Amino acid sequence: MTEDASAKKELAAVKGTRDILPGEVEKWQALEGLARTTFELYGFRELRAPVFEATELFEKGTGATSDVVTKEMYTFTDKGGRSLTLRPEYTPSVVRAIIEHRLDLEGAPMRYYFMGPMFRYDKPQKGRFRQFHQIDIEVFGEKDAAVDAEIIEMAHALLGKLGVAGAETLVNSVGCRACRPAYSAALREAAAKRKSELCPDCQRKAETNPLRIFDCKVEACREAAASFPSIQDYLCEECREHFRKLRACLDTLGIAYRVEPRLVRGLDYYTKTTFEIVSSHLGAQNALLGGGRYDDMMKDFGGPDICGTGFAMGMERVLSIAEIAPAARKMLYLAYLGEAARMASLELARYFRSNGVECLVEYKDRGMKAHFGRANKLGAAWVLIVGDNELATGRFGLKDMATGRQLEGTREELLALLLES
Ligand code: HAM
After folding, report:
1. Is the shortest distance between the CB of 122 and ligand 1 below 6 Å?
2. Positions in the chain whose pLDDT score sits under 70
């Protein structure tokens, strides 16, 4: 490799991260806009938390036996000797913020959303990045299964606006602290019987948290897990009733779903409802979004005993199959000739922009022909001609690039025309 090539390589974006460039970013902006307006219709407000948090927050929240915490966190020690972690997910941050600001005392609906980057050190592949982006929503203080159904319906509403068709909704209940121990014991027993078939990681999980074996992608572990008992047979009366209600609410809303008893999700905090929306168009990483209820996290953090439920959508994955046509842009290009016209263009551009017209001036000397060539290349909708004559008379020529039509008028007349078009 030449010195130049190796310098370029060193300066490339880090593996598992990527740039979102103009041309693509418009789709991201459209997704963000649609998500925002959808969530606000359901009473959600944005809550922005820091990109890094104390490592302990995720160890306690996401869970010490989850893959995210044991293998995937970007953890570092800062100059003050504190252990910090780039957030691998958003849920624990929201819970921390509620406790820290006592948002529960404000009386407002505790419905929050957020969009931004998350960080996980996993093997990059199609649909899996080390810096990826989530749209996250969380609701607090609503025990009823109806709210779980409502957020699933909200996810469907957003996916519908994004033109995502053919996605499948999977639901399950992972029980609660009352009924899960008996299920874990039964799983441990089943896993012990097939221990030799499990990967070393799952052999460890069989002892620490056998539920996590369901997250393993190794074929032999999946096969073994298929024979394990189903959580549905171990739910306590309360969890059973909650799950029945969830399904009834989804039926009422006309949302098709499949009960998937092995959907335990990779994070330790879930209680009762878990769900995912998956798409067969995505490949191996098929989850567009995942979520569920976590009724114990807030009190486990030392806060009030307030339940939570929510989901996070992977933006890269959704965008890879969404059908979004960003709004067409209409740009006015200023083609000037000579120094006086260049100065005048600076001010003219401010006039059009301050009146809501996207306007571009490039301060490079060009002849008129070159200006038109450039405007064409940029896809400008209009070209305003600014020369000494125009400056003297205060009347400018305007060319509609799509039709070739030439117009003429004062800047006020042309502005009115542009705003109408
Ligand atoms: P999660 O299932 O870990 O849940 O992530 C949610 C979504 O983020 C996934 O369904 C996927 O679309 C996307 N995602 C996860 N990891 C990656 C990655 N490495 N690259 C690209 N996309 C990825 C959570 O994070 C929970 N906090 C969801 C939640 C909110 N539960 C309750 N409230």
Report:
1. yes
2. 1-9
Question: 404 is written with which tokens?
Answer: 């070739």
Distance 133 CA to ligand 1 centre (A): 9
What contacts 32, CB < 8 A, 6 or more positions away? 115, 135
Cβ atoms of 320 and 381 closer than 8 Å = no
How does DSSP classify residue 328?
A: P
Cα–ligand 1 centroid distance for 136 (angstroms): 9
Backbone angles phi, psi at 145, to 5 degrees: -60, -20
Phi, psi of 46 (to 5 degrees): -80, 140
The pLDDT score that the predictor gives to residue 7 is: 56
pTM of the entire predicted model: 0.93
Token duo for residue 82: 């504190």
Nearest CA to 305 out of 339, 271, 341, 328 is that of 271
Q: In the prediction, which pLDDT does 266 show?
A: 86
- pLDDT score, position 165: 86
Q: How far apart are CA 415 and CA 388, in angstroms?
A: 20
| Eight-class DSSP state of 178 | T
Tell me how far apart the alpha carbons of residues 175 and 239 are, in angstroms, rounded to a whole number: 6
Residues 331, 339: Cα–Cα separation, whole Å = 23
Q: Dig out the tokens for 287 from the structure.
A: 């989850």
Per DSSP, the three-state class of 54 is strand
Could you tell me the distance, in angstroms and rounded to a whole number, from the CA of residue 271 to the centre of ligand 1?
Answer: 17
Long-range contacts of 191-195 (CB under 8 A, 24+ apart): 191/224, 191/228, 194/224, 194/227
- pLDDT at 172 (0 to 100): 97
Res 136: pLDDT: 98
